[in-house]
């Protein structure tokens, strides 16, 4: 596509997001399966349902704008998902693997927050208020998902690791050297 207008820029971003969300719908069940922490599994499962709704929202945006969102591969999401797939293959304690899953998921959320924020700004400048509202709804969900992952890490996983016998022994060993 030749980029000749802000409308083209918005279309490019929306196509990228559309493919990214479709990739996530396929990837999130693998993260759910790999996670051990019940709260983490529930959070990812809720976000899977949100992601499916986000695809529907993008379909609605396509209808409003009279455009087709197919035909573009989001290479960034492909790479982020590949990194996440590496994490699920790691061996280690459940809490440590869950932390790696959260780190991978947060990288994905941050990418989406950036992309949806840009698309929203473009739609706003173009005067597409219905599109802005739909993109903001998704942006709010992505931000909430990121905060939830952060809370699980800080409130559950990191304290469990810090308080584990293995961590206590590791810290004692470090202090003697």
Proportion of strand residues: under 5%
**N-to-C SSE string, H for helix and E for strand:** HHHHHH
What is the rounded Rg? 19 Å
CATH level 1 class label = Mainly Alpha
Overall mean pLDDT stands at: 93
Could you walk me through the main structural features you see in this protein, from its secondary elements to its overall organization?
The chain contains six helices and no strands. The protein is an all-alpha fold and 177 residues long. The chain has a single domain, classed as Up-down Bundle (Ferritin), CATH 1.20.1260. α2 runs antiparallel to α5 and α3 runs antiparallel to α4. The chain is elongated and about 65 Å long. The protein starts with 5 loop residues before the first helix and ends with a helix. The relative contact order is 0.14. The model has no long low-confidence stretch (mean pLDDT 93).
Short summary:
Helix content is 85%, strand content 0%.
Write the layout of secondary structure elements.
Blueprint: H1 6-34, H2 38-65, H3 75-88, H4 94-126, H5 129-163, H6 165-176
Offer a few descriptive terms:
177 residues, mainly alpha, Ferritin, elongated
């Amino acid at each position: 596509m030749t980029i000749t207008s802000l409308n083209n820029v918005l279309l490019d971003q929306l196509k990228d997001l559309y493919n990214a969300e479709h990739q996530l719908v396929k990837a999130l069940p693998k993260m759910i399966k790999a996670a051990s922490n019940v709260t983490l599994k529930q959070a990812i499962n809720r976000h899977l349902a949100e992601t499916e709704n986000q695809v529907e929202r993008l379909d609605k945006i396509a209808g409003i704008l009279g455009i087709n969102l197919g035909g573009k591969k989001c290479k960034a999401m492909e790479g982020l998902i590949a990194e996440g797939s590496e994490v699920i293959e790691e061996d280690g304690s459940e809490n440590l693997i869950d932390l790696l899953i959260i780190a991978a998921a947060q990288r994905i959320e941050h990418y989406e927050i950036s992309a949806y924020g840009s698309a929203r700004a473009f739609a706003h400048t173009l005067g597409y208020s219905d599109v802005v509202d739909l993109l903001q709804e998704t942006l709010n969900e992505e931000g909430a998902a990121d905060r939830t992952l952060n809370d699980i890490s800080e409130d559950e996983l990191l304290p469990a690791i810090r308080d584990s016998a293995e961590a206590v022994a590791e810290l004692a060993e470090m202090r003697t050297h």
